[in-house]
Amino acid sequence: MVTPRFLGTIESTVKDKYTHPVVRARMMSYLYVWSSTFASDPGLTAIPQLYSKLAPNYAPAPEDAIVPITLALSAGTMAQETRGKQILQDVEVATGNAQLLLEAVSFVDPEKEAVEENELIKEFRANTMESHRKIALHLSQMTDSAEQDPAALASLLNCNQELVQAIKAHSTMLESRQQYIASIDSRNPFTDDKYSVDELEDRSAAVRNG
Asked: How confident is the model over 83-118, as pLDDT tens digits?
């Protein structure tokens, strides 16, 4: 029986705007095949139900659609065992990178520190983006493969979610910083000059104190 968590992860991955289009198309194609294969299985009715729910908005274009059962492994695909080990290693590294970025961002006050200039956070974000690229590639290769490993697929999907959450948190922090700077500029008489945020705050205080 398929678990609600597994289906929920697939649904959120398909819907998320940060999901690579190729990965989204492959996931929808697999859902289509699974829906046909397990349509008569009482324990797996949630699969065709999920496909019916997502298909109106996320059905892949004809050129992106695939029939996974008929696909053969490409000549350049790694051996299954080696590939499985690489996936586990990349998932572990990616999870760590996502956690580091989330923790770093959570300790930053956008009103006191320029997030975009924080070298440590910049490095964490770069590592997270690289991990996101690798995980997306693994997902694309796995959904292109004739051989499936449900456990590895679930692990990749969960990891992808963690990476997306970390990237979103960083983007939100940058937006908060930009909004704060804009609010300082909008109420400060020195906005025509090129001052730093700290200088603008000092000058604003001087004006208020007469």
From this structure: 778 888 899 999 999 998 988 888 878 777 777 777
Among the residues of the chain, which ranges form H helices?
Answer: 4-15, 21-37, 46-58, 80-106, 119-144, 150-186, 197-208
Give the span between the Cα atoms of 58 and 138, in whole angstroms.
21
d(CA 51, CA 158) in angstroms, rounded, equals: 19
Cβ–Cβ < 8 Å for 41, 79 = no
Residue 77's Cα: distance from chain center in Å?
A: 24
Thinking of the domain 78-187, which architecture would CATH place it in?
Answer: Up-down Bundle (1.20)
Arithmetic mean of pLDDT, 113-124: 81
HSE, side-chain direction, 13 A CA sphere, residue 99: 7
**Domain map (residue ranges) of the chain:** 1-70, 78-187
pLDDT at residue 36, rounded to an integer: 75
Are 116 and 174 in contact, with CB atoms under 8 Å apart?
A: yes
Cα distances from 70 to residues 49, 144, 203, in angstroms, run 24, 10, 69
